């Protein structure tokens, strides 16, 4: 990636962030949806007698898995394949796409239903299949709305969070000629009927996986609409595509992780549907796929696993809590990041997973470092420290411009001693602030004026 391309990506993020941050309608919609989320989570957390202890247990379990990832993946593969399932190891997106397309071509699949999955977004599966003549329909309501409107998911858990009820009604009016004032209930009924027909006619399905239970070789899926359960049980072929980091050691761990995911993701004590899938159906069973595949996608995860301490981020269970807590995300929204994974977790992992650290290094600077993301993470990832680790790595890789380096050195020199900080007069400080900080401060805010130094004000206060 050239320096010019890096600057373009950074400039695009800044410009789109500026526009979105001052879009009052967007802010009102997000504030409304986030407030409902905050209220629900506060209620959901009451189910834990000791939430801090639960988070520490979850962090330790994920740490144990990451330290022994290869062994747990092999154990999962052994148990899953022993019941007739097939494992596909994909080093990157291209290998995953090729493997899935070959399965569909061999089985003459032309229609696919898909349950919500961030890994399929990462791999661009839907677009890829449609370019190769395979209809791929999203069945999660939020993802379905995003798909038919030609949009991209806005949030890890709630893909249509940026849309109001009126926005959604307009989408269905324009696309399907539903009444412009259709209620959410009427729209849901229409989508339910439409998707039921698709489930019945689809030859294959694609889902993600919330967890892979290595001890028993099972895929654990949690959802609220039942579309995931229908996806994996009705079509004759079921393909799971998931990251290699989704493994947990044993079935007992779900007693910990399912409630944590539900509470931090949507504020529920448990999601409506929690399913374990062990492989294709047996001869005596009536429901379930005839063939089942699990695509284990690396796509930079091994690279991240080598990066210490950034490997901690592979413990993420994709609950979206850090996005909802982040003041930057709540202002600039999910689309401005320009990545599949947005918010604090996206800013941390995207430079590593993409293999283009230079392109996405600016995301690690799009943070106030308030620590709220760390505070809400259910698996104890120290996200605000992880952002700092990425910044440090950017410096080691020589990705700072000369002006940035000079500014940092000057700041460091001034801050090391109080006398140096107090030496310039208020007039000089205001002059340099106007010259060098105005652009970063933004055109929509007034630059504050320095009247007296802190130390002089403190001395006056003591007297």
Describe the structure.
- The chain has 463 residues and is an alpha/beta fold.
- The chain folds into three domains: 3-42 and 313-396, no CATH class; 65-299, NagB/RpiA/CoA transferase-like (Rossmann fold, 3-Layer(aba) Sandwich); 413-462, no CATH class.
- 54% of the residues lie in helices and 10% in strands.
- The chain has 24 helices and ten strands.
- The protein has helices spanning 3-21, 24-44, 51-67, 69-81, 93-106, 118-123, 125-131, 141-148, 165-176, 184-201, 227-233, 254-266, 301-306, 321-325, 327-332, 343-354, 357-360, 372-376, 383-396, 402-415, 418-422, 426-436, 438-441, 454-462; strands at residues 86-90, 111-114, 135-138, 204-207, 211-213, 218-223, 237-243, 247-248, 273-277, 291-297.
- The strands form two sheets. It has a six-stranded parallel beta sheet with strand order 1-10-7-4-2-3, sandwiched between helices. Strands 8-5-6-9 form a four-stranded mixed beta sheet.
- Helix 2 (24-44) runs antiparallel to helix 12 (254-266) and helix 16 (343-354) runs parallel beside helix 19.
Short summary of the structure?
With 463 residues, the protein is α/β, with parallel strands linked by helices. It contains 24 helices and ten strands.
């Amino acid at each position: 990636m050239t320096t010019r391309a890096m600057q373009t990506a950074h400039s695009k993020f800044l410009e789109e962030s500026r526009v979105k941050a001052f879009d009052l309608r967007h802010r009102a919609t997000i504030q409304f949806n986030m407030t409902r989320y905050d209220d629900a989570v506060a209620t959901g957390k009451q189910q834990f007698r000791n939430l801090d202890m639960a988070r520490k247990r979850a962090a330790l379990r994920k740490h144990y898995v990451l330290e022994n990832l290869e062994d747990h993946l092999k154990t999962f593969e052994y148990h899953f394949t022993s019941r007739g399932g097939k494992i596909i190891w994909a080093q990157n997106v291209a290998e995953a796409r090729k493997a899935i397309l070959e399965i569909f071509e061999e089985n003459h699949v032309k229609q696919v239903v898909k349950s919500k999955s961030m890994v399929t977004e990462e791999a661009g599966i839907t677009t890829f299949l449609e370019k190769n003549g395979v209809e791929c329909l999203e069945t999660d309501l939020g993802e379905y709305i995003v798909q038919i409107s030609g949009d991209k998911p806005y949030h890890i858990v709630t893909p249509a969070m940026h849309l109001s009820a009126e926005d959604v009604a307009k989408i269905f009016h324009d696309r399907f000629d539903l009444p412009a004032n259709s209620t959410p209930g009427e729209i849901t009924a229409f989508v339910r009927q439409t998707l039921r027909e698709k489930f019945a006619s689809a030859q294959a399905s694609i889902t993600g996986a919330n967890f892979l239970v290595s001890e028993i070789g099972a895929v654990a899926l949690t959802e609220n609409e039942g579309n995931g359960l229908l996806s994996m049980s009705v079509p004759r072929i079921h393909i799971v595509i998931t990251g290699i980091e989704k493994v947990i050691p044993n079935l007992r761990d779900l007693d910990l992780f399912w409630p944590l995911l539900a509470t931090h993701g949507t504020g529920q004590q448990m999601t409506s549907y929690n399913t374990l899938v062990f492989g294709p159906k047996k001869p005596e069973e009536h429901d379930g796929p005839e063939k089942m595949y699990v695509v284990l996608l690396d796509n930079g995860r091994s690279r991240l696993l080598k990066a210490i301490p950034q490997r901690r981020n592979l413990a993420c269970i994709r609950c979206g809590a850090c996005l909802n807590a982040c003041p930057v995300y709540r202002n600039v929204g999910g689309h401005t990041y320009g990545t599949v994974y947005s918010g604090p977790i996206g800013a941390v992992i995207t430079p590593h997973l993409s293999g283009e650290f230079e392109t996405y290094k600016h995301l690690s600077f799009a943070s106030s470092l308030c620590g709220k993301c760390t505070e809400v993470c259910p698996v104890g990832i120290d996200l605000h420290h992880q952002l700092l680790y990425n910044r440090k790595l950017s410096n080691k890789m020589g990705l700072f411009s000369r002006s940035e380096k000079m500014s940092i050195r000057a700041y460091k020199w001034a801050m090391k001693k109080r006398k140096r900080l107090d030496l310039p007069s208020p007039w000089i400080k205001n002059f340099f602030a106007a010259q060098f900080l105005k652009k970063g401060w933004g055109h929509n805010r007034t630059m504050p004026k320095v009247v007296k130094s802190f130390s002089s004000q403190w001395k006056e206060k003591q007297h």
